């Protein structure tokens, strides 16, 4: 029995259950304590909906209900939906349509759908979106979830429906020949979710498994709500850790008294800076050696932002741990603070890192952590001789990753006295290497397990909890679990760098001859990723149009705000926002067609990327050239699908308070970090001809396990189902740098392909032995068989059994590593159609279309999911998401709602079209797709806003009041484009 507990009896999934629950315990916690792990915790304030269950058939948020109040009620969780092996049709539809990405929101989405369909078997799309709006999803953009519910409704009504099909078209040789299936023109108010459309060049080779919409290898367990996330498996004797954070933006800790907390019964450890060795580190999970500065310690005697770490506690229960935090008395000496990066660089600004033991800060007295200065060509001469020189300054917001699963970590000693860290991390191998010196253990005594991850988007490419949790286990000898609250997610983790982006561009005869980019990056209180994010920004922001004379200067500046870090888009989206809007402004000023102006200037196949050598990622880069691109075709297909020019023409003649606008942006990204990223994969053949695929690659919900399995399956002539995929565990899977930099398909995929080709050779050699043939290379692997030219064949099972038990006995297995000195850019055209109310400044986005060249599309459904999810996050970046601080540095919107991420019923129509290319260095021609998807929405919306109103807004987000104010500066005549 828990303290203050009472027994309640309730019916859970049709079975009567008696639970002992605490007085203040939420129903969410009670259900999870009783092993109903499908019920997730995302905010504890009723805002996100991932804790939704059905109570008497109605969706309710279990975090908002006291467990004691649930006595006698009838509850359904997703564990009760399927009957044995048989999934519920809603679960099946979620799998078939690709509605499951990280899967953290999926159990609650499925339950909400069930409640809807029980009441309304034939809902409209609008009714589906309305019902689903109660559960936030940060991964999908709600396209496939909406499709899944409509599909499940049809199945429940009619018995079955058509299989999910991916429409394919041969890419015509000329743009004027482009036509699309009728639905993709979106005529007549058609808003139904569409599958991605795939254009393929005639000459591209055929594949068997690659290019097919294989269902995700982890989809079934996620849709069943199985205990696969970090917090879903809890060892015996678990203690609950909790983190005390700073209420002040800048202060020195004069005294810290934890005696009362330590004396509390049930409290096993309280650690402050006095208890932990002072070892400097950089928290960004990057390859060795990590870029400087090493400006953090596990716990410090100074705090530099509200939310900074102060102390940690481990106690018998979550509630005891939280109570113990309140008994730690901290005396602070408040210091002057600075929140603005420009002010932070001034002479009299407070010095945020005045400690003597941080090395590698460029100018600590002025809070400048890095200054980057890189140049190619002769910029000054090029500007002086340019026909036109134009400038623009742009501002981007501090956006939070807002993955639905907060940071969670469990640490414990195993039976061999090795420390196990089970963590929701994107970088298990980097974490192991980084934690070791902080806790005083050698790497060999640490094992990091990465289970399924409920989204990360860069925020889990960081050391956030693992060191503190490990210290608590070291201190207590007990397993310890730490989980951040949603408020801590906002103020104690990482976010996107807010940037000032200032471009100066020289143009002669419609061609860019010179560019100067100044980037001011606000890194917050610590410098994690500060250097590399800006370098990527400079590289991509000066390479999209690739002028031969270019200069990049960046200041990365400390402020007393929560630190920034890695976030999908990683500097590139901020700079591409700037250059794309400026290109529009230049086209307007020079009276050029903006599409043709961009077309004349964007990077083309065969061209060297001028900045590649001088701007690597944290170090010097490598010469690179563009080897594949379908940007021309992406733009032309998008122009056709959107009826771009006709609509722009019509928009010139509109009147009234609602104005329509059509926008375009073009973008590029990369595929891994050239010359740095490395991944490895292992394949092992089993008795039945199946294979274990062991990878350090880290699927954080993107579907990378699935597409890597498709690459292996294609190489071995087997179905994906014959691969047992496991990622990632530092004890059992080979090294991989982790999931970031759009590297998994390209780099990890390269490793999988190499390992599979090694295995193929071993199979051929053994089969040749069995068939007494001289030339193994002539044997073909297809349909789980080895086919000989003389018509004989062996099954893979026969080869496996023979090699393990009979002839020349050995294990058929291989490990391969892969790295690349190239990072082939995916390219894309982003289109946006909006309506703006010129009386209020309110923008309504009606349609987003992204036409993407990501090389060969390994899996069109998972790739489309990446693009849709990226566009949804980009909508927030462009319209609603910014972390707002008061003058004392307190974040005022540290919960969902005030921090507005889009819900299902707020989304525009979103379409995805792929134009395949066959990149010569990618596995089967693949490049990347995860990050390019986020780059183009903001500039496309500004482009559309200008089309609608002739107003340029250069600061994001495009809040209505900001748009309205910009409109006030224009005359009616100007707004009417007259
Ligand atoms: Fe919805 Fe990840 S799939 S939050």
Walk me through this protein's architecture.
The chain has 978 residues and is an alpha+beta fold. The strands form 7 sheets. A 7-stranded mixed β-sheet has the order 10-12-8-19-16-17-18, with helices on both faces. Strand 32 (843-853), helix 22 and strand 33 (909-915) form a beta-alpha-beta unit. It binds FE2/S2 (inorganic) cluster (FES). FE2/S2 (inorganic) cluster binds at residues 101-106, 137-140, 404, 455, 701. FE2/S2 (inorganic) cluster (FES) binds at residues 101-106, 137-140, 404, 455, 701.
Task: Give the helices and strands, then pairings.
Blueprint (H helix, E strand, L loop, with lengths): L5 E7 L2 E7 L5 H7 L18 E4 L2 E4 L12 E3 L12 H9 L8 H14 L5 H8 L10 H16 L9 E3 L26 E4 L18 H5 L15 E7 L5 E7 L1 H5 L3 E5 L30 E2 L5 E7 L2 H9 L2 E6 L6 H4 L23 E9 L2 H7 L2 E9 L11 E6 L5 E5 L4 H12 L6 E4 L16 H11 L3 E4 L2 H7 L6 E10 L2 E14 L5 H14 L5 E10 L13 H18 L4 H8 L29 H12 L1 H8 L6 E11 L9 E8 L5 E5 L8 H13 L6 E4 L17 H28 L8 E3 L2 E3 L5 E3 H10 L7 E7 L7 E11 L5 E11 L6 H20 L29 E7 L16 H4 L1 H13 L10 H9 L3 H4 L3
Parallel strand pairs: 1-5, 6-7, 7-33, 8-19, 17-18, 21-22, 25-26, 32-33
Antiparallel strand pairs: 1-2, 3-4, 3-5, 8-12, 9-11, 9-13, 10-12, 14-22, 15-20, 16-17, 16-19, 20-21, 23-31, 24-25, 24-30, 27-28, 28-29, 31-32
